[in-house]
Amino acid sequence: MLPLRLIRGGAPLTQLPRLLVVAAAGSVGFLLLCALSYALNHPGDAGVAVPRLLWCLVPLAATVQLAALVARTAPGPRTRAALDAVGLGATGLPLLAALQTAVFCLLGSALALLVYLHLRGDVVGLPFDGAAAELVAAGRPLPVVATLTLLLVVPLVAAGATALSLRATAARRAAHPQPPALDRAGPPLPLPVGLSYGTALIGVGIALETYAARGTGAPVPLPGAGTGPGPGVVTGWLLTALGLVLAGPGLTQLAGRLLAAARPGAMRFLAGRILQEEAPHIGAPLGVLCAAGCGLIAASHLYGPDRPLGPLTVLGGLVVVGCAVAGVCTAVAGSRAALAPARAALAQLGATRELLRGAAALRVAAVLAVLTPVTWGVAQLAALPLT
């Protein structure tokens, strides 16, 4: 009952990220059920049904990333201290967060099932004059075991990822306690090793995609028409997206270094140091947002008005983009809360609001100046072999 009490006792503003997790989990559950419906309508066409199911892994990964991020930033310092006082330390907090995440995702899966059954006409008859009958396999018996299995995929995966993420975060905090960068003098922080690994993965992914797409001569079909893309192309895309996520913290910290370089003034120095401190927290969500933007740019090159996207493709794209944007906003809010004592100390030292607001605007500009050309360049390289 403790997870439910903590959910009920949260402030209204803290419920918004959780509602986004519910909506994302429900959307992924609906996509999985629609993939099952296609398999029911085409029992002998496994060559197309399986890729449709595999395409659901992309919004599933985005949803799991958002759920784990919300779980890491949801408990405030007071709540975390109170839970530590009652014995929920490094072991109990990940379990509690996993249970909360499972509750949100189960709620989303239940909503997805209700919408799915309504479109099938199992509740009050076929809605919309049967326009969605083919999409949800209306009129065909629904396998109960397969349906429940697909609906439990999102809660189980999200809960497991949340528990592992919080355990890793707790281990890092225990092994490397560091004061904020604003309270520490010395050289800039070293760039994360993920920058080199991420860059290498991006190169490998684009090379693999280029090799696998030789001789296709046409855009790779999305899960709305035709056969699915080959495994080499999909693997190349996934490696490229993973590379962007791994390189996100390094690119963000590099933006902070550039901002504080060349004899900076007080505003630029403050903005650069804060951005370097925020990089481990907001870098990975920014990398996810770059990967989503890269996919949108590449899709705009491959598909135009003469090749309209299907409703399931649009829904999956909205889930990925929505989770990426929500993840960045959640990470920024969590980082802002973590740096609140440092900002209070700066205010006591005489820092004005104009200085702090100017530093925040410089951080946003620096991140956009570094990540925008990277996203555009990777998208162009990813789309080039398929045009």
UniProtKB/TrEMBL annotation:
Keywords: Membrane, Transmembrane, Transmembrane helix. The keyword Transmembrane helix applies. The keyword DNA-binding does not apply. The chain crosses the membrane at residues 20-40, 52-71, 92-119, 144-168, 189-213, 233-260, 281-303, 315-339, 360-383. It comes from the Bacteria. This is Uncharacterized protein. It comes from Streptomyces chumphonensis.
